[in-house]
């Protein structure tokens, strides 16, 4: 009898366990749905709105204060300081090789012409003898004429090579530097490049900079050194752009004492008297980088949100220029002088805007 009751108790326990797992299995979906509803209910509201294709970040004043967001009003100013830029030392080995090739081709042409003159004279003599009662055979006259024509073809081919070489060098280096390969009377800075007393430096200058004048100078120093600046003399516009796409490029000739091929250099260009530019200064701590470009956040920076009731809480990201660097930051044009720029917390605004962009991509 006791054995029978024991079996019944075991069966009841198994039944209870089975019912428990059935409840867990069927209640799982409802539990997950409930969790999702709870998460949706506590999801934070979006702080970014798109207005006429521009993202406007809105932060309550309390959030701005807690996050340390600070702004500063910009003021108009004029800029006439040194232009600071960079460059690098360029090898002219190919230009020197072109000079050697040019000399060789010229030598070949001179030798061919000298030999051709003798062969022409020989041909004229044989032709005269042949016409004088066939004192020389027709075959001898024909062979002499063939030698004359062969020399003409050799001279023409060498002259074409010489012309192609000149064209190629001028395209690769410009007409001024091409003089190193093709001229004997060179200006001092070009002669210095040829004899390695000077080095060729390719310099990048901002797009709004006035093109250098003939024999104008700049100051350069190696990028990682603290030597006294050396004077570089302007040569010509460069034929290659800067790999970073920065501004216009020009060639300069500088003393070779401290310079090595491939070395990066700092560049300082003296301002032109009377050449003043109006604009504003973007502080260095206002700049944020996104997609490889510099930006700054402005409070009420655009007419797009000019009528907004929350103008004190709205920020707009705008591109800025980093072409002209000064001690206080970056000189810019095209920005309203009375604008307020974010000088602390710009990275937070960028993160907030970036979260909005990611959310939109996920919804799409």
Which SSEs are present, and which pair or pack?
Blueprint lengths: L1 H41 L5 E4 L2 E5 L2 H7 L2 E4 L3 E3 L3 E8 L2 H39 L6 H36 L1 H8 L5 H7 L3 E8 L11 E6 L7 E8 L10 E8 L8 E6 L7 E7 L4 E3 L2 E7 L14 E6 L5 E2 L2 E4 L7 E5 L1 H18 L1
Antiparallel strand pairs: 1-2, 2-14, 3-17, 4-11, 5-6, 5-10, 6-9, 7-8, 7-10, 8-9, 11-16, 12-13, 13-14, 13-17, 15-16
Helix pairs in contact: 3-4, 3-5, 4-5
The helix-and-strand class reads alpha+beta
- Sequence stretches where pLDDT stays below 50 over 5 or more residues: 39-43, 301-306
What is the architecture of the largest domain at the second tier of CATH? Beta Barrel
> What is the element string, with H for helices and E for strands?
HEEHEEEHHHHEEEEEEEEEEEEH
Reported by name, the CATH topology of the largest domain is conserved putative lor/sdh protein from methanococcus maripaludis s2 fold
Proportion of residues in helical segments = 40-55%
Number of helices: 7
Number of domains: 3
Please report the first level of CATH classification, the CATH class of the largest domain: Mainly Beta
Radius of gyration: 40 Å
N-C termini distance:
71 Å
The fraction of residues in strands falls at 25-35%
Mean pLDDT: 79
Report the biggest beta sheet as strand number plus sense, adding barrel if it closes. 7 strands, antiparallel
Care to count the β-strands?
Answer: 17
**Which shape, going by the Cα principal axes?**
elongated
């Amino acid at each position: 009898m006791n054995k029978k009751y024991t079996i019944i108790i075991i069966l009841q326990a198994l039944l209870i366990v089975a019912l428990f797992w059935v409840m867990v299995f069927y209640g799982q979906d409802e539990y997950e749905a409930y969790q999702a509803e709870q998460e949706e209910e506590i999801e934070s509201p979006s702080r970014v709105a798109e207005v006429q294709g521009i993202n406007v970040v809105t932060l309550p004043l309390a959030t701005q204060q807690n996050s340390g967001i600070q702004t500063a009003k910009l003021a108009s100013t004029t800029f006439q300081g040194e232009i600071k830029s960079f460059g690098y030392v360029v090898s002219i080995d190919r230009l020197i090789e072109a000079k050697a090739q040019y000399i060789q081709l010229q030598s070949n042409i001179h030798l061919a012409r000298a030999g051709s003159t003798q062969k022409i004279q020989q041909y004229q003599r044989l032709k005269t003898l042949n016409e004088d009662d066939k004192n020389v055979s027709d075959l001898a006259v024909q062979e002499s004429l063939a030698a004359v024509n062969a020399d003409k073809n050799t001279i023409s081919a060498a002259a074409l090579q010489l012309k192609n070489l000149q064209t190629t060098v001028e395209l690769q280096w410009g007409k001024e530097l091409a003089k190193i390969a093709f001229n004997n009377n060179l200006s001092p800075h070009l002669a210095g490049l040829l004899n390695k007393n000077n080095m060729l430096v390719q310099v990048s200058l901002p797009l709004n900079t006035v093109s250098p004048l003939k024999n104008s100078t700049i100051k350069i120093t190696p990028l990682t050194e603290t030597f006294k600046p050396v004077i570089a003399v302007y040569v010509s516009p460069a034929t290659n752009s800067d790999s970073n796409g920065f501004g216009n490029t020009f060639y300069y000739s500088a003393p070779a004492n401290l310079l090595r091929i491939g070395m990066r250099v700092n560049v300082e260009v003296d301002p032109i008297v009377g050449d003043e530019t109006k604009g504003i200064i973007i502080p260095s701590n206002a700049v944020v980088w996104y997609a490889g470009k510099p930006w700054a956040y402005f409070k009420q920076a655009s007419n797009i949100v000019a009528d907004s009731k929350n103008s004190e809480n709205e920020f707009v990201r705008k591109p800025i220029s980093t072409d002209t660097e000064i001690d206080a930051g970056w000189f810019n044009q095209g920005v309203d002088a009375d604008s307020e720029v974010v000088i602390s917390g710009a990275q937070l605004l960028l993160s907030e805007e970036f979260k909005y962009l990611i959310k939109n991509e996920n919804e799409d």
